[in-house]
Amino acid sequence: MTGTVNVQETKGYNLLKGKINSGFIKVKFDDQQITLELEKVNSSMKIRGKAKPAIDVSISSEAEAKIAESFTTRSLRKQKKFQVIEKKAEKKMEQLMKTTIRKAQEEWRADILGVGQKLHKYHYDVWQTVKKDWDKGQNHFAEADIDVTANITINTTGITEQTK
Which residues, listed in sequence order, are joined to residue 5 by a DSSP beta bridge? Predict the structure, then answer.
């Protein structure tokens, strides 16, 4: 067994893989907690095909969400407020994904993301130079530069209203 994952790392993994049909992200707004319900998440991975010393990987996660719960005393029906909440949620998503990547690269030293499979399929010549030591030996996976970006669009506030 390579290692275990906690709830937050599982969320990060599922965001990285786009394997979320429903889930929640909690953020602070006006010093109050807001819960976003993720309704659809799509992720894509791009590899810039270059050989050693490090493989460049970019993972983009796009999500649609609604505000499921809010304890703020202000109305959330303005687009500017949505944008502030979206940015906070994107940072939270990126932090979850980065934590999972860090654990996979530094602690487990195992390619749980399928980067090697993408290299094999789309950059076969590069794969041939790194496959022997991909996630063992020199461990090129652990040395890969993996960048993540998140984009959330809030579609609705659900049934939330400002509280008194």
Answer: none
Fold of 7-156: GMP Synthetase; Chain A, domain 3 (3.30.300)
Handedness of CA 120, 95, 83, 65 (dihedral sign): positive
pLDDT digits (tens, 9 = 90+) for 16-45: 999 888 899 999 998 899 999 999 999 999
Tokens of 129: 């130079």
The answer for residues whose C-beta is within 8 angstroms of residue 117's C-beta and 6 or more apart is: none
Distance CA 14, CA 2 (A): 18
Q: What does the domain layout of the chain look like in residue ranges?
A: 7-156
| Residue 74 backbone dihedrals phi, psi, to 5 degrees | -105, 150
pTM: 0.91
